[in-house]
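On clarity, I found the account of how folds are encoded harder to follow than it need be. For illustration, here is how one protein appears when written out as sequence plus structure tokens.
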Amino acid sequence: MARPLIETNSGPYRLALATSVCTVLLLMAGALVTNNDAGDSVPDWPLAYGRLIPPLIGGIRFEYTHRVIAGIVAILTLVLAIWLTFAKLQRRPTATLFGWTALALVLAQAGLGALRVYEVHPMLSATAHATLAQVFFITVVGLALYLSPWWETGESIQDSKSPSLLTLTALTTVAILAQLILGAAFRHGAFGIEPHLIGAGVVTIMVVWAGRAAKKRFRENIYLRRCTILLHSCFGLQILLGFAAWYAVRVIAPESPQPTVAFVTLTVAHVLGGALTLAASMLLTMVCYRLAPAPYVPAGFSAKARV
């Protein structure tokens, strides 16, 4: 039997999913390093104390685990980029661009990690390191959705309202990313918590606005409804984790000379919740792009006339 000219996306799709899951573990490992005050436990890079495997004691355990998971994610991303480059897939140029962009991001992330180890502008490099981790995460999550079987079957819908749902969801994603940057800057001592609290208010407005628009305009669309529920669920949980993390920083941390289990658990969960909220918003944005890529123009009106 002749082999089809176009291969299915199942292999790259599964690899993109696996990379996304490993990236979640990487984000957790990075948060464990920060919240266990283990960022300075290993003084060299890429080796650790001049060895491939250092003594796994104290903060070295967290830092070394973080490096190992980062290496696994980098290898998975490299394999995915090469696979997308040579596979005979539909929409291969765009998928390949996604793949190599993800690889460039993970390599840049490694470079920022090295700068942090050698304490080159530690607050700036640490904040940039945390930010780029979130950007890489939504890149591989977006790539997984783009390679999924659903992307081939989704039916287009018409959005006649202004601003369009695509615009609202994209702005919501940008607002959440900005909020995560403010949170990373606060964690690494760049400034106080006030900008992060203001950002939380902005994100709340955007999430509610985008979700309300999706429900009112496309209540019957199962894909938008599920993505909206996912975003609201992640955001609601993140609000609760935010209060818990604030309590951990203001109450638990000052009373203990060392990070406690409760402090580390709450703060790491808050970081992870932020990443999942960002990913949920990114998925909603991409679903809007797939289903309603442009505002609906009524019959008899050209796009130029509408402008």
About this structure: The two ends are 53 Å apart (CA to CA).
